[in-house]
Amino acid sequence: xxENSGMESYYxxxxxxxxxxxxxxxxxxxIKESKIILKKYFEGKTxxxxxxxxxxxxxxxxxxxxxxxxxxxxxxxxxxxxxKKYNCKIDFIQDDSYKLEKVNGxxxxxxxxxxxxxxxxxxxxxxxxxxxxxxxxxxxxVFMDNMYVDGSSIPITRFDxxxxxxxxxxxxxxxxxEIFKNFYSVNELKxxxxxxxxxxxxxxxxxxxxxxxxx
Length: 215
Fold this sequence. Notes:
It is globular and about 40 Å long. The model has no long low-confidence stretch (mean pLDDT 94). The chain has six helices and eleven strands. It is an alpha/beta fold. The longest helix is centred in the N-terminal third of the chain and has 15 residues, at 28-42.
């Protein structure tokens, strides 16, 4: 049976099995390389992390950053993240990424891992405006997400009228959800942020991409 109760419900239910995605053998060297890149970007920074999930990447960033405010809409994800060990000052807040009403103060960096692909294309500019209002001038913004790789990625099943792509996701209890997840080429990513910074840096790590630009 295909569930249609939304992204938030899907990730709340998936929380306990979420990190199994990082166990795929063919992705290990790219995960290692990604961690090296992220630690370089966030050394000594005050970080606002959007959609922190279970804290998998938060742990890496905490090894070098000054402080982190990590937010997620799902309490199920946050409860897992809160029980990990971090190497810097860290706070967790349950908040909506499209509002950030509970986020006070300005930060000199932002990280969001595997959330950008879940932003409807019609809301991307809205999202940029929201996060930029929480950041200092010249803050660095870093997004990380999936490349589509045949044979490794879950197949795309359809597109909607805005060209958002969808997948059928199956959890361990055999429940199935239709989830939208957009995949971008390097050139498409550059086009999305060129109005903010024409010196954007994008790392293509086969299964992942990491994009960095300055506010």
